[in-house]
Design brief:
This protein is α+β, with helices and mostly antiparallel strands. It has a five-stranded mixed beta sheet.
């Protein structure tokens, strides 16, 4: 998946909100495409226990968008596969 348009939007607007569908317990953390409803699908190489999958999600998004972990916030769905994430520049 090409995230360049998302990176550009973050740079121009200063913030980005993503609907994300996570697939925990995957072999590696990686982009897995876009779903029919527009949600971004992400494979997460962590178990959904004690916040480990959420930590991996935040770490991955911070690295991909070149921001600090503190600039990535799970706004909704912390205990769900469907999450709303806000990234600020």
């Amino acid at each position: 998946m090409d995230i360049a348009p998302l990176q550009q939007r973050l740079k121009s607007e200063g913030k980005l909100t993503l609907q994300i569908r996570v697939i925990p317990r995957s072999p590696a953390t990686a982009w897995a495409g876009v779903m029919a409803d527009g949600s971004v699908k992400l494979k997460i190489a962590a178990v959904p226990e004690k916040g480990k999958a959420n930590e991996e999600l935040v770490r991955f998004l911070a690295r991909e968008f070149g921001v600090a972990r503190s600039q990535v916030e799970i706004v909704a769905g912390a205990s769900s596969h469907a999450k709303l994430v806000r990234i600020t520049a």
